[in-house]
Amino acid sequence: MASPILPLLPSNLEVIQDPNQVAKLSKDYYHFSPVLTAQLQDKVADVVIRPATEAEVLQVAKACVASKTPLTVRGAGTGNYGQCIPLEGGIILDLSKLNRTKWVKPGLACVEAGAKLAAIDKITREQGWEIRMAPSTYRTATIGGFIGGGSGGIGSITYGQLADRGNLTAVRVVTMEDEPQILELRGDDVQKVNHAYGTNGIITELEIPLGPAYPWAEVIVTFDDFMQAARFGYTLGEADGIIKKLISIHAWPVPSYFAALQEFLPPNQTAALLMIAESSLEPFGELVKAYGGTVTYQKTAEAAKKGAALAEFTWNHTTLHARNVDTNLTYLQTLFPYDTDLKLVEHMYRHFGDEVLMHLEFFRVHGQVCPAALQLVRYTTEARLNEIIRYHETQGAFIANPHTYILEDGGRKEINDTQVAFKGQVDPYGLLNPGKMRGWLERNT
Amino acid sequence: MASPILPLLPSNLEVIQDPNQVAKLSKDYYHFSPVLTAQLQDKVADVVIRPATEAEVLQVAKACVASKTPLTVRGAGTGNYGQCIPLEGGIILDLSKLNRTKWVKPGLACVEAGAKLAAIDKITREQGWEIRMAPSTYRTATIGGFIGGGSGGIGSITYGQLADRGNLTAVRVVTMEDEPQILELRGDDVQKVNHAYGTNGIITELEIPLGPAYPWAEVIVTFDDFMQAARFGYTLGEADGIIKKLISIHAWPVPSYFAALQEFLPPNQTAALLMIAESSLEPFGELVKAYGGTVTYQKTAEAAKKGAALAEFTWNHTTLHARNVDTNLTYLQTLFPYDTDLKLVEHMYRHFGDEVLMHLEFFRVHGQVCPAALQLVRYTTEARLNEIIRYHETQGAFIANPHTYILEDGGRKEINDTQVAFKGQVDPYGLLNPGKMRGWLERNT
C-alpha cells in the first residue's frame, strides 16, 4: 500500500518500500511473549524511512504532520514488549544511520540516537570510559532504543536504573507539532521522554553519563544449591570493595540451555555468571571460597574479546537461549524486595518448581541491592500466566509485566502525567507510536 | 636516655636522638581527646630510626629482637587515638622514607608503607586512577598508617570501609621473631594486620585497589533546617546515578568554626560539604533543587587544586578546626543504623542540643548507605563524656570510642583472635607497639 506521505518527502531520504524489508523492520522481539505474539504478529508499517541527519528527521516529522501519518521510531528492534511495532501502520523511522559519537569527556559522552551501544564503547574506551549500563543486546541495540524502551541491565548493580536521576544527562527531541521543532531537554526534564517508547518525541541525540572502563573479567561460579548461590550473589552485590558489573544467577535447568557454555556448567548445578573487575579478582576469589563455590570458567578482559560474551547469556538473552531449545518457554520480570535472607525468592523457587525456573539478576534500587528475576515460565495458557503473575504480586513481589505493549501496564503501573502532558504539547495529533500510551488513549474518557 | 639498641644497628641507618625531635615524633593527634591527653602526654621513645628500605627495616627488627627493645611504627603521626604513641619507650620506626609507588595498573597499585596518600594519587592519576578512600589528613598521612590505624573516610560513600574485603589486596610484613623475616599476606590473610595499629608486624609494602579518578567538583550546599540537610545527604548517598566522593553535613554552629569558608556559610544554616563528579553536577543540581538547598560554593576539579580543599573541613578535620576555636571541644564517632527517616539522628540532635553538635558523614556499610557522625562534644568531665556515649549505645547507635588507645576498645569491641594469634607468631616477645592490643595483654589471664 502506498503511503500518502511519500509525495511529501524530499528525494534525499532513504525510503524502504520492499514489503519483506518493511515487514522485517516492523518487528522486534515481542515473540518472547505468546500473549504479544497473538496481538502483534500482523502489525506492519506502510514504509520505512531511514534518515541520516537530524535535519532529515525534521523533514520527515513535517511530512508526517502534514499528512497525519503515524510515525513509530525504531532503533535496532531488540525490544521485547513490541515497543516499536507500528499498531496503526504509517511509517517506521529507522534511526540506525544517526550513529555518530559526537564527543567524549571524563564521565560523559554525546551520541546520536542510532549509535549502537558497543560502537559507543569502542570510542569512549579509548579515553578510559564506557556506557554505565547496557542490555544483553549490547552489540546491536542502539542508545536511543535503550533509553526509549529499556530500563537497566549489565552495570545496574553499580548505577541502578535508567530512570534514576543522573543516568541520562540530556536529550534532543524532534517534535510533531504543526511546525515541528527541535527541543533540548536537560536535568529532570529528560524524564519527559525517558522510557516513553518514543510516544512523545523523536529522540535524535543524547548526552549520557559514562563509568570507568575497568578491564572486566568474565567468570562462572557453580554451586550445589540454588539458595547458596543466591546468597553468594547478594553478598557479592553488597561487597562495596569488590567491583563488579554483572551478577546473574541461574538455577538448574536454566544453565542447560546455554549450548556454547556446556563444558563449564555441570548438570544440576546453579551457575553464577559474573563480570568482575580484574583488579578485584583476588578478593572475589576469597568470597567464592567462603561460599563454597567452584570457578569453572574465568577469562581476562583481553581473552573475553574472543568467543561468546558471558553477558550474552544473561538478562533477557537467557530467555533467548532457552527459547532456542524450547519455544514453550516465556518469562517474567520480577523485582523482589530488599531482603538479604531472600525469603520470598526461596518461596517462589520452591512454590513453582519446574513451572517457573529461577533466574536472578542483582541490581541497585535507590541505593540498595535487590534481587530481580527474569524467571523462565513453561507456558500453558494466558490465564495461567496471569495467575502466576498475580500470585507473585499478592506475595509482595513486583512484576514488570513483559506481556503487554502498553507503556503503563509494564513496569510503571500508573499514568505519568508529565509524559502525557508532554505528548499533548509535542504530538497534538497523536501520531507518534500510537496505541502504546494508556494515559494518552484515556485522556478524554 | 641511650637505647641499648644503638650499638646493634648498622651505621647506614638514619638515627634521631635529639630529644626535641624524638618527643615530636612520639606524638600523634591524640590531643583531640582530653582523656587520651591525660594518659599519653608523657610517653616518649628513646630514639627514632628512619630506615630507607625494607632491608633496613629488617636490620632494625633484628636489633630490636636481640635487645628486646620495644618498636612502635610511625607513618605521619596523623592518627587520633594514640595509635603510634610508644607506651613503653624503645624506638619509633619512622617509615616516611619508604615512600615509593612501585607500580600502577588499572585499578591497582603497589606502594611502600611510608608513601603519602596524596603523593600516591599524583602518580596513579596519570593513568586515570586514584586511591579509593582517604582520611581528611590525605595530604600528609601515609598509606601504611592509614591501613594500620584508619578505617575509612572520603570515598567510603562508594567503597565502604578499609576492613571490607577488596579494599586491601596484599601486604608485606617484617616480623619480630628470633629470626625476623618478610612475609607476604594476600587475600583474606591481609586482615591479620589490617587495622592492628602495627602491633603484629611491620607493614613495609602494600598492594591497594584504586578507583576511577573522576574530576571531582567541590560544592557547599546550605539548608535552613538540619534534618532537611540530613535527608538530602541520605538521598544523595543512595542516588546510584550520581557519582560522589564525600557527603559531609554540618549543623550550625559547626560551620562557624571553618574560618576560611565563612563567606560561603551563612549564620544558622546547616552546610553540606560535598565532592561530586563533574559529570554528575547537572543531575546533582536537580537534587539540590528538590530539597530546597542553596549552592553557596562550587569549584571545578581544576579550580579546587588551589586554596583550601573542602575535604580538609570534613571527617576529623572538622574537629581540628573546631578545636582551633575552642579547645574545650572534643568529639564522638557514631554509626547510626540504616534508616532513611533518620529517626535516631534526629533524636540525638534534639536531645543533646548545644552539648553535642551534629556532624554527619555518610558512607556505605556492607552495601547500604548509613549515616555516621563525628559529633563535636562540649567537654566537661570524663564521666559526662562516658554518659553521653552510653546514652547513644542504649538508644541503638554504635560508638567507635575515640577516647581509648586500646585497639579493641575503639570500634571493634571484641578481641580478634586471628590478629592475636598472628602476633603470637610474628612478635613472640610482644615488642611491637606494646600495650595497645587487649587480646595480647590478656592472653594469659
TrEMBL record, chains A, B:
| FAD-binding PCMH-type domain boundaries | 41-213
InterPro entries named among the record's database cross-references:
FAD-bd_PCMH, FAD-bd_PCMH-like_sf, FAD-bd_PCMH_sub2, FAD-linked_Oxase-like_C, Oxid_FAD_bind_N
Q: Kindly provide the name given to this protein in its UniProt entry.
A: FAD-binding oxidoreductase
Which keywords does UniProt give here? FAD, Flavoprotein
Q: Keyword Transmembrane helix on this protein?
A: no
Q: Name one Pfam family in it.
A: FAD_binding_4
